[in-house]
Design a protein that fits this description.
GO terms for molecular function: N-acetyltransferase activity. The protein is of the alpha+beta class. The chain is built from four helices and seven strands; from the N terminus they run βααβββαβαββ.
């Protein structure tokens, strides 16, 4: 997935150092916007560590969005193989920085995941999100994902309603 043209950002594949940046930005942004505790950052860190440790370039991707003008981090997403369910990919760690919202970047990142998942033969893309993340939920719905379950959890020290969404390809 490459963004170009008049867009103020580029989208590239991950490279060394990006997993730490993804973890850091999730920790900072979610603490600021939702008052989520540091244990959330640890949870994201496990996701990014697992991705790097088991990365399969043929069937998995991480995309980073950067501002063209200065290379500043604007967002990210990971598409990873679900190692417990054959034919299923997981959309993980979608994040769009505050100053990059409203440009269509989140939709472009999600569509890139779906397109890649189809190209490499996945049958379904699944994701987990929180009910409180209204913009992300609208984006997933607009891209064709369906809500399949919701439950209150307290997995990182804060009670949230976790939702599972799926898109059959």
């Amino acid at each position: 997935m490459e963004a170009n043209g008049a867009k103020p950002y580029i989208i590239r594949n991950h490279r060394p150092g990006d997993m730490g940046l993804i973890t850091h930005r999730h920790g900072v942004l979610y603490a600021k916007e939702l008052n989520w505790p540091p244990r959330f950052e640890a949870w994201v860190g496990r996701i990014t560590a697992d991705f790097i440790e088991t990365y399969d370039a043929a069937s998995e991707r991480c995309w980073i969005a950067e501002r063209k003008a200065d290379g500043a981090f604007l967002g990210c997403v990971i598409l990873a193989k679900d190692r417990e369910n054959a034919g299923v990919a997981k959309l993980r760690t979608l994040l769009v920085e505050e100053d990059a919202r409203g440009m269509g970047l989140g939709g472009e990142l999600v569509r890139g995941c779906v397109t890649f998942a189809r190209e490499v033969g996945y049958e379904k893309v699944s994701l987990l999100t929180a009910e409180v993340l209204g913009s992300a939920r609208r984006l997933y719905k607009n891209e064709g994902f369906e809500l399949v379950s919701a439950e209150e959890i307290n997995s990182f020290g804060k009670a949230v309603v976790q939702e599972a969404w799926e898109l059959k390809l």
